[in-house]
Each structure stands twice: as C-alpha cells, then as structure tokens.
C-alpha cells in the first residue's frame, strides 16, 4: 500500500540546530505520534513538510506525488492544526473561515457548520476572545472541513486541560473511522498517545531515533523494578536505562527473557510511551 506521506532525507539547518536526514513514512488508517523534547525538531519537520519553511534538501511525497510539484493538489487533501494559531485575531470565526475556505477546492460548508455546532462555538465571536480549548477546536473544525485525508497537528494538546485533551482524542478517533484517513500528531504530552497512537516516531536533536508500531514498542520493552541486590555487573547490562536509589532500582529493558531468568523476583511492567521516550533521548545511555 502506498504510504500517505513519505519524507526522505529531509535536511534543514539553522544556526544552532539541524534536521539530519529525517526519513519516515506515514501509513493510511494510522495515527502516528511524533514525539520529542522541546527543541528536538518537531515543528521544523512539520513546517518543512508543509513548505512553510524552505528545506535545504529532501523529498516529500503525498499519496505518491512529489509535494513540491503538486503543492495545491496535495494541500487540498491535508488538514493542518499548527501550534501558533495562524489566525487574524481581530476577525470573527466566520470572517476567518471566509478567508480560509477558498483555499480548498473541496471546502464543505455543511461539515464546517456541523463541527461548529458540535464544538459549541459562536461564529460571530472574535478569535482574540477564544479560550485555548475553543481555539484548538476551531482550528480542528477548519482543518477537517475540506475532506482532508491526512490531518497534521503540531502540539495540539499543549496548554489544554485534561478534559479538552480527551475531547480532542475522541474527535481524532471519530475522524479515523472513515477508511483511508491518517493523523500525524506532534506532542511532548505522550500520555495522549498511550491511548490513541498506532505508530510512534521519536525525534531527538533533529534525528529520527525510533519509528515503530506503538504496541510492538511497548511489548518489546519492559519497565523493571526491584531490590538493588539484583543489580550486578552482569544484570546491569540488560538495561537500556537504570536508576538506583536507596529503596531499589528501576530500569528499562529490551531483554525481558534474560531479566526473568537472571532476576526472578523483580517486577516487570508495560512501559508508557514516555518511559520509551526518556530511554532513547539524549544519547547518554545504553540504548544508543
Ligand atoms: N527560524 C529559526 N531560526 C533559528 N533557529 C530556529 C528557528 N526555528 C527553530 N529554530 C531552532 O530549531 C530547534 C528546533 O525547534 P523546533 O521548534 O523544531 O522544536 P520542537 O521539537 O517543535 O520544540 P517544541 O516542543 O518546544 O515546540 C530549536 O533549537 C529552535 O531554537
């Protein structure tokens, strides 16, 4: 199956930062979480994909077509929710919609009205007066009203309370019910992804470190906790990260069988996406 988006050897250099040969694909019918710490390159990658900044090199394909050569055609099928609202604050929701709608050949006013109603938004309200949660919902309504196949969201949950974040997760799951849809979702609030992501891509210092199915990632790793007496020169090597305190140790392993064999009395739990992220970032542990 053709991936919905292919990013190949994407490079972009700023004074103190660079994307380094960023390469990944997004599959149809998948929610992909794009995770990384502050400043790891998530926004830069998304902006480069969307042509909002000039890339130094690299190829981006949408549904098999080169995005540089088919900008209008591909952007017609992509919905975008960006971190900084790209809205004119003094306009009302309706006025801003009137600016955005003509950019899309498949704009669907009925779908937009249904979202506005569902999200309890008022079209005559000024953008400047929207709360963070309302602003996110408005951005989602705009992004999903032109029959997009791929929704790209940059930190949509940042600054939102847990209730609104959970509402957003439901909106995304609802969007995914139609076959052929995909979501690419950058965040450093990884708990949102534990629930909904199919794939996890981790970027650290401009480099893709992990690109794997979420369940595979969580099944092949384990969070191990136990008494310090189990830690010795041999068992230490079983861990990607290991933290010891006077009360015991906690570590992430990929060698679950060996841990079970050599450390029979320890606790093994399924890690979270955050545990995995903290394991692989920074380049200062056994994982790299
Ligand atoms: N226009 C620019 N000029 C120079 N440096 C920039 C520019 N835009 C971003 N950077 C730098 O690139 C690095 C990556 O930034 P980016 O916004 O992509 O990170 P991020 O992973 O999205 O972080 P966050 O989670 O904080 O939004 C940062 O060090 C940032 O300072």
From TrEMBL:
For the ABC transporter domain, which residue ranges apply?
A: 5-230
Sample GO molecular function, one term: ATP hydrolysis activity
What Gene3D superfamilies does the annotation carry?
P-loop containing nucleotide triphosphate hydrolases
Q: Which UniProt key words apply to this protein?
A: ATP-binding, Nucleotide-binding, Transport
SUPFAM superfamilies, sorted = P-loop containing nucleoside triphosphate hydrolases
Q: Name one Pfam family in it.
A: ABC_tran
Origin superkingdom: Bacteria
Q: What is this protein called?
A: ABC transporter, ATP-binding protein
What organism is recorded for this protein? Aneurinibacillus aneurinilyticus ATCC 12856
């Amino acid at each position: 199956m053709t991936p919905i988006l292919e990013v190949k050897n994407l490079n972009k250099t700023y004074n103190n930062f660079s994307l380094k040969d960023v390469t990944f694909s997004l599959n149809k019918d998948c929610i992909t979480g794009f995770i990384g710490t502050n400043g790891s390159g998530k926004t830069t990658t998304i902006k480069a994909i969307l042509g909002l900044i000039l890339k130094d090199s690299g190829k981006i394909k949408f549904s098999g077509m080169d995005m540089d050569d088919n900008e209008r055609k591909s952007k017609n099928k992509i919905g975008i929710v960006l971190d900084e609202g790209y809205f004119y604050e003094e306009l009302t929701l309706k006025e801003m919609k009137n600016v955005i709608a003509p950019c899309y050949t498949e704009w669907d006013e009925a779908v937009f009205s249904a979202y506005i109603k569902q999200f309890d938004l008022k079209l005559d309200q000024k953008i400047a007066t929207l709360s963070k949660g309302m602003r996110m919902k408005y951005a989602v309504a705009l992004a999903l009203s032109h029959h997009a196949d791929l929704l790209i969201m940059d930190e949509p949950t940042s600054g939102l309370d847990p209730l609104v974040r959970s509402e957003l997760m439901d909106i995304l799951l609802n969007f995914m019910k139609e076959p052929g849809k995909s979501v690419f979702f950058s965040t450093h609030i990884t708990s949102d992804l534990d629930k909904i992501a199919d794939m996890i891509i981790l970027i650290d210092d401009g480099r893709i470190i992990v690109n794997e199915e979420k369940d595979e990632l969580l099944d092949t790793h384990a969070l191990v906790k136990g008494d310090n007496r189990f830690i010795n020169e041999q068992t230490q090597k079983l861990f990607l990260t290991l933290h010891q305190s006077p009360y015991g140790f906690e570590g992430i392993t990929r060698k679950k069988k060996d841990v079970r064999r050599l450390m029979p009395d320890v606790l093994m739990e399924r890690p979270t996406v955050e545990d995995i992220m903290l394991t692989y970032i920074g380049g200062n542990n056994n994982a790299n």
